[in-house]
Specification:
Elements lengths: L1 E2 L6 H6 L1 H8 L2 E5 L4 E5 L5 H15 L4 H4 L7 E7 L7 H12 L4 H10 L2 E4 L3 E7 L2 H13 L4 H27 L3
Antiparallel strand pairs: 1-3, 2-3, 4-6, 5-6
Organism: Metallosphaera cuprina (strain Ar-4)
Protein name: RNA-processing protein
GO molecular function: RNA binding
């Protein structure tokens, strides 16, 4: 598998290659000519190679190292929203990112606190790292913002989604304990 990152993230990813190889049990090489990382599962679990590719992609998007390495685990996934699909106009792109981040980072912080998802806004992408349960909630909140909904509407959605998630987790616990 081949993966590339922006030039400004190359040294960071290169410095983490041994940690990535060790944690994923795979081989990672860097091809100077093509500027691609080559992720080889060495006839091991190809799923781990895919998880490692996700870590490298996350690092390339500006996700902090500690959050990117969560992707090695089973519970965490990376989801990316490509803002270029919404507009190529710089002014529109700036407004979109401003709505996602909010005044003083408030909107982004609230979505992260409600969902437990790490959100990183870069030039043309929004990277989300969270669990399979959390990502859809955070992504829908961001989509509501991108559709121009009022922030208060998004916060109400997050309240309801959090309540539903708590009920769902509670029912799973009861089911495991045989209380249903």
């Amino acid at each position: 598998m081949f993966v590339s990152v922006p030039d400004e993230k190359l040294e960071l990813v290169k410095s983490l290659l041994s940690d990535l190889s060790r944690s994923g049990g795979i081989e990672i090489l860097y091809d100077e000519r093509s500027k691609n990382f080559i992720v080889d599962p060495k006839n091991q679990n190809p799923y781990q190679a895919l998880k490692t590719v996700s870590v490298i992609n996350a690092l390339g998007l500006g996700v902090p190292v500690s959050d990117a390495f969560k992707l090695i685990g089973e519970e965490y996934i990376l989801d990316v929203i490509d803002l270029k699909q919404l507009s190529h106009d710089k002014a529109v792109m700036s407004r979109i990112k401003g709505r996602i981040i909010g005044e003083g980072g408030k909107t982004k912080r609230i979505i992260q606190e409600y969902t437990g998802v790490t959100i990183v806004v870069s030039d043309h992408h929004v990277a989300l790292i969270g669990t399979y349960e959390q990502i859809p909630i955070a992504k829908k909140a961001l989509e509501l913002i991108l559709k121009g909904k009022e922030h208060s509407t998004v916060y109400r959605y997050l309240d309801k989604a959090e309540e539903e998630l708590v009920r769902y987790r509670s029912s799973l616990r009861r089911e495991k304990l045989g209380l249903t």
